[in-house]
Records
---
Amino acid sequence: MTRALQHNESFCFAPALPVTGDALSNRIRLLMKLRTSGINDTRVLSAMENTPRELFVEEAFREHAYDDTALPIASGQTISQPSIVAWMSWALDVHPRMRVLEIGTGSGYQAAILARMCRRLYTIERHRDLLAQAEERFRTLKLHNIVTKRGDGSKGWKEAAPYERIIVTAAATEVPKALLDQLAPGGIMVIPIGASVADQSLFRIRKQEDGTITSETLMNVRFVPLVSE
């Protein structure tokens, strides 16, 4: 099933939800940590500043929403640590008029960050419950440029291709051919690759205008595996 939360070509986002007290100070502390770690892209920092991570974590872990750590969510999945979200968003080099495909909606946090940076965000999740929860969060934040789909992310979303940017939030053993085919010439894909959790690296894949594929290794990471249905 494919759902567009709402079509609104002006893409005017509502401000972040009101936040006070400890959550506010913790959010500011996290942003300062990201800056000192080398994330100086104002688009990424602004998107993260205006996206309340506490909305995307389970209630039992809400006090840790701004710790720089991954946290468990439903269906045996995780919400990535904020620094990894920031680095992946930076590596993707998203611009306002771009169409972006995300593989693995999860809690919706990474999607919410990217939706504030691009024209339209397409996101696929195989777990029905996770997708429903993420959609509710997108509505709460009035992110109207996100289109969702339940399905096998390794197959991509052919009907809406090509995409200028593709991000994969689960580790594959190799880059899925379907995703390479759906990446536009001149496009970038950011994807974790590794046969085991202990042997994963984050790669930035570029498709040149002539179709040539190049890649570079960015850092070691730990992600849940990308599962094909």
---
Amino acid sequence: MNSAFFSDLLSTISERGRTLLRLKTWPQDAAGRAGSLIDLCRALLSGRGEASGLAMAAEVFARYRTLDDAGRAAFFAALADEFGPDHDRLIAAMEKWRADPCDAVAASVHYASEPRRLELFRRLNRAPGGTAALVEMRADLVDELRINRGLTLVDRDFTHLFASWFNRGFLVLRRIDWSTPANILERIIRYEAVHEIRDWNDLRRRIDPPDRRCYAFFHPALVDEPLIFVEVALVEAIPGAIAPLLAGERVQVSPERARTAVFYSISNCQRGLAGVTFGNFLIKQVVEELRRELPRVETFVTLSPVPGFRAWLARAEDAPVEADALAQLAALDDSAWTSDPEAAERLRRIVEPLAAHYFLKARTPDGRVVDPVARFHLGNGARLERIDWMGDLSGKGLKESAGVMVNYLYDLDDIEKNHEAFANQGEVVASGAVKRLLKGERAIFGIAAPSFSQG
């Protein structure tokens, strides 16, 4: 109620402020519209009036939404070129620092070095719905970055502000169930990025039964927009495949009998908040929620996809795949092998050791673990617990992951130690079962497996 009242108040002030503005006619061509919008941004930065400032910020968003692709490109380019630091002010502050290198002068240098677009974004944020509008604007910028890397500085400024505005202290954890408002449930269906939710019945099967949970983070400025959500299955033992968890006809597990909580889908919802970390806080807080509600649940694991595995097999120079094995891997493209136990076993003997190599040895050129899902969970302090052959036999699972899924274990006693090992030494903390698969790699491909510390 307070949030709605404040929003209505801002809208009223903004509308009154519009009467104080003398806006130029909106040009028809893309370049003219972008230029006119930049002029409005300059005026917003130079103004001091509260009502006129709110109205001007609202007008910036209204006019921005009318831009086509070329207009948005020109607008972002102007933000990069014309709204950086005030060079004269920065030079003057640096001269003062050279003459008197004290903390007070250092603060002056810091503030003088701030790009003017940061203050522009802050003033835009005051408009009614300003935070959501800036998130949408940044989503457009992410698309434009694929074409123009010169916009990276603008993107860094967005990320810098969003990291503050969306820090954990402002986020609210809410459970999503069948009583959640329909507009939010619709967004859950739309934003699910791991295992498609086909319809309302499918959604209900994931959030309504007593052995299912769904939690999402929300922000006060985006009341009905989930930022990230996680789907949880309560089971008796660690699962090795996704199909039984998603099956329409399945035997439900009484929460009193459940000993394992499985995080089987984590979806980020706002493209404009890419790069702002929520997932680590979400998992840890959900673990605490579940421990309070269900003290008998002792094991917390994921059932995660391996989205880059097939692509890595196709391009990685260090993948230990010989010609005969490579020919057999081509059979993965034909799902007929999934119903042939002998063919499945032949592929398992090849794929499992390669998957262990992928997680434990493969690295990007800058030395990072190749798999993005692995980087996320290992960075959170999880342990690579198990590689699940034939864990996902959907078309997407076969195409991206060769049917493989992975369990990451969140052992609450070891999370911080594991996180430190991964963050500081790049160590992949893995179970003995995963490490033993490297011996299978050595036996099949005739290569030496390195030693890893026991996780």
---
Amino acid sequence: MTHQTVPVNSLVNPCFDVSDEALGAARRELAAAPANLPRPLLVLAGWRSPPMPDGGVLARIAPLIPGASDALSITYASLWTINSAARRVIARVQERFPAPGSSDTTEVDVIAISMGGLVARLAASDTFAQQSRRLRIARLFTLATPHRGARLASFIRPDPAAAAMRPGSEFLRMLDDDLARASFDLTCYAQLRDWWVGARNTAPPGRVPIWCEPRDAFGHWLSHFAINFNPRVLTDVALRLRCMTPLSRQGGEPPTE
């Protein structure tokens, strides 16, 4: 199918077309309905993210989710492989939420930024379970994750983790094979103009991300990172985490990258 290139400002996803008024009403609804999350929340950072704020996602989503301030945020800037990042995740989850006598960790919900979505999928996979405890995920929300590979990794691969994110890599094929047997619920988000990953790469084969257009200059130039600041995306994640009616619904594939 051929997609026509049109100015990004005219691209609105009818399945995620949220006015400022509707966004404000949803955030007020979240504030007025305090409730604990059904399970611990895990926030996984992206590739080479420094040992600090998971892109600031946790700080921005915490006001919408009681208990989110106690979420476990994990980065792995010093690690060179996605496998070693997955091992760190298992160790940190087991340390914070012990599950003695089990081959799985305590069940968690996960918000994963960029490469963090691949780390989560690996840690929850049958393949990884053969060498380690398995990350037991109930719901996985990924933000601009290169499920089908990162466009940038086709040209620049400074470490094994980046090489694994090359479109068509053996690592990604393995994850897709495992995904067919996975029991967790996966929701993928994308922003257009994501020159690093590509909006159409942000869901596994056969699936479609919930996409939106950047709404400011920051988003237009650095869309891959700006999704972490998008209040519509974060509010939608918060509503889904709290089992409330989301702002979005599943629709068609992104019309452009």
---
Amino acid sequence: MKVLLIEDEPKMARSLKKGLEEHQIDVDAALNGPEGYQLATENEYAVIISDIVMPEMDGIELLRRLRAMGNRTPVILLTALGQTDDKVIGFEAGADDYLTKPFEFKELLMRIRALARRPVETYQSTPSLHFADLEMNLETKEFSRDGQKIALTPREFALMEYLLRNPGRVISKNEISERVWNLHFDTGTNVIEVYVNFLRKKIEKGFSQKLIHTQFKNGYILREEEV
């Protein structure tokens, strides 16, 4: 397995590179955004690990550029910020996972291996999904309620799609984290609650019937009526 490490702190970069190579992982290392971006566009990697705060080009901008050019390599963002807003911004830019500094090396190793071997989600081919007055077109990426188009971000769209594929079933936060976004659920963050609230505001504003319900301590369920 070959990974790209983009970290502007030389000491940390050397330490992580050494640790990964001791676990039979080949590592290309870059100390700034532009250098990392160049390596990412010229080579193929199983996973890219990038710090967020870096000189010249930060990790978010680097990630946005890679996704804009069609690069789908899994990306783990490293951040010392640890704020929900920063994680949301990273996810919207196309991040697959994140770790907040300081972190245990074995945790990084586990995340790398999980992303490198994650299965591609296979769903039965269908052009659209429906529930109540909701409709999602998987080909055009359009979503509407009662004929009214609603703009969703990529991460909101992925969450809504999973709910539409599992109506009437309680879906835990852990399941959403792992099955929808391919992450390991972090009990110390409220990112999932944030996105569920984003969806609720978009699909329930102006409608009397609520569709996304919370099951206390269990998760969320898509249904027409409250039990």
